[in-house]
């Protein structure tokens, strides 16, 4: 039983670390501004302003 919990935690930590690494790489590439601009455009279209 302890072995299953250990495998589960190791997998969880690895996936969290991978997610953080991907967010860091995306931020370094400047993709934050691209996503923010697209979100603003979608919101403006939904409201009917843009």
TrEMBL record:
| Superkingdom of origin organism | Bacteria
The UniProt entry, under InterPro entries, shows: CD1871A-like
Q: What is this protein called?
A: Thioredoxin
Q: Can you name the source organism?
A: Oribacterium parvum ACB1
């Amino acid at each position: 039983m302890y072995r299953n919990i250990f495998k589960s935690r190791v997998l969880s930590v690895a996936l969290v670390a991978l997610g953080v690494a991907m967010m860091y790489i995306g931020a370094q590439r400047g993709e934050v501004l691209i996503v923010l601009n697209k979100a603003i455009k979608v919101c403006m279209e939904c409201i009917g302003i843009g």
